[in-house]
Amino acid sequence: MRFSERVLSVDLSGIRKLFEGAPPGSINLGLGQPDFDTPDSIKEAAITAIKEGKTGYTHNAGLPELREEISKKLFKENSISITPDQILVTAGGSEALHIVLQALVERGDRVLHPEPGFVAYSALGLIAGGKPDGIPLDETLHINVEAAKEKIKGAGVIILNSPANPTGMVEPEETVRAIVEYADDCNVPVISDEVYEHFIYEKKHTSAARFGDNVVTVNAFSKTYAMTGWRLGYLAASEECVNECMKVHQYCQACATSISQYAGLAALRGPQDMVTKMRDEYKLRRDIVYEGLSRAGLRFNRPEGAFYMFIPLEESVYAKIIQSGVILVPGKAFGERGAGFARMSYAQNKEILSSAVQRMTKVISGC
């Protein structure tokens, strides 16, 4: 059987394979999986939808009432004026990223993305026929604006991610504005991945679409409402862009799961106190881990958002930490520029995190 070069050029994510060498009883801080449960009001809305027989196909673009609520949310929270017709509901943020890259990338186009950056950016760029091209970060792990500008001209697309996975950094308004406006001058579309927007500490979220029309906003319910397994996300863009993305979505997905869409509708219409509670808890967890690792002698920037810590670790130290029973993801999994780092998720409870820090401290102090 012959396979396409596009697919052959992509490896399966090696993150989960890395866990196999860890001893029994290891603490897994490798996956970005919130330990919170989906709020009951959202679950009940899904159960009601099932009981009422709302189990058929929906409109390809998603439930009209859900797109209306997303439109309201984008205006109220992000200062973005988007009509329901400019929104496409997808099977998670991952599908949104996939279909927009399929719609925008020509064969051989450079797909710019932060490096180190989320593993899907380069993989989906390759699958779309493009050439992933990493944008270097500065010493604080934020996007180097001048380095980004040098690469933007002639690129196919540029992907922004704030708050960022794996670094946990939040890009300031001036950086987002500068990149969007320069990309617009160069006629390069911007894809803004904002799935961690509600988990920001001390800083402020800035949506890229505030500064130009040549922006596709990608978001999801997964992290905000602890709905990772529900697979519900969306993209918001010009009607022209949404119509082209719809072609890919229609033939690969048809529509997002109807039950998940009704659950998402309840999430947006219902109380938002759970989101605030999760954010505050993540901040406490971040501080426990950061302060513990700082006392152990590690020096790095305190994460500003999401629930990841990108810590400097030599490979030999990283290997010993894995052997001690704490699972982290090596920085190289997020691009060559991630070498010498490791990503640690603090989406576990405080007791587990404290235990992990104790194990790591013993390794670090012995090296």
Shape annotation = globular
Major sheet: 7 strands, mixed
Would you tell me the structural class of the helices and strands?
A: alpha/beta
> What is the CA–CA distance across the termini?
50 Å
The beta-strand count equals 12
Going by CATH, what is the homologous superfamily of the largest domain? Type I PLP-dependent aspartate aminotransferase-like (Major domain)
The chain-level mean pLDDT equals 95
Which range best describes the helical content: under 10%, 10-25%, 25-40%, 40-55%, 55-70% or over 70%? Answer: 40-55%
Model description:
This protein has 367 residues and is of the alpha/beta class. The chain has 2 domains: 5-38 and 273-365, Aspartate Aminotransferase, domain 1; 40-269, Type I PLP-dependent aspartate aminotransferase-like (Major domain) (Aspartate Aminotransferase, domain 2, 3-Layer(aba) Sandwich). The chain has 12 helices and 12 strands. The protein has helices at residues 5-8, 40-51, 64-78, 92-104, 119-127, 145-152, 173-185, 239-252, 258-269, 273-295, 315-323, 350-365, and strands at residues 27-28, 87-90, 110-115, 131-136, 157-161, 190-193, 215-220, 233-236, 308-312, 326-327, 329-330, 341-345. The protein has a 7-stranded mixed sheet, sandwiched between helices. It has a 3-stranded antiparallel sheet with strand order 9-12-11, with no helix packed on it. It has a two-stranded parallel ribbon with strand order 1-10. Helix 2 (40-51) packs across helix 9 (258-269), helix 3 (64-78) runs parallel beside helix 9 (258-269) and helix 4 (92-104) crosses helix 8 (239-252). The chain is globular. The protein starts with a helix and ends with a helix. The model has no long low-confidence stretch (mean pLDDT 95).
